[in-house]
Amino acid sequence: MQEGFGRTPVEAAICKVPVISTKETSLLEATMNEVFYYQNGTDEEELAKKIVEVINDKPSKEMLEKIANKLEKEYSEENIAKKYIKLIEKMLEK
Fold first, then answer.
1. Where are the domains of the chain?
2. Of 52, 55, 63, 68, whose CA–CA distance to 16 is shortest?
């Protein structure tokens, strides 16, 4: 099963949790290139190495807060609403 957008890693990052993700599908774009990535989403050894790497070199609270703030701003209800309004206005112009 696949998630189409990548909401789960975005929500976790907004909660200031270190997120490990693949760069596959929409995940890189959804997480705005801000979390910890590994290439092959089906390679459990690559994932294990990334987990150990993140555990051994824990991100600072400041770094996690910076990531959270960026994603929270991008995906805020207000920002999403503005994007929808802009899209609707653009469609009505045609």
1. 7-93
2. 68
Residue bearing tokens 């596959």: 24
Taking the C-alpha atoms of residue 1 and residue 85, their distance in angstroms, rounded to an integer, is 32
Work out the pLDDT band at 4, boundaries 50, 70, 90.
low
**C-alpha separations of 91 from 24, 82, 83, 88, 94 in Å:** 30, 14, 12, 5, 6
Q: Is 90 left (phi over 0), alpha (psi -120 to 50) or beta?
A: alpha
Please tell me the distance from the alpha carbon of residue 75 to that of residue 61, in angstroms, as a whole number: 21
pTM as predicted: 0.82
| Nearest C-alpha neighbor of 23 from the set 54, 46, 55 | 46
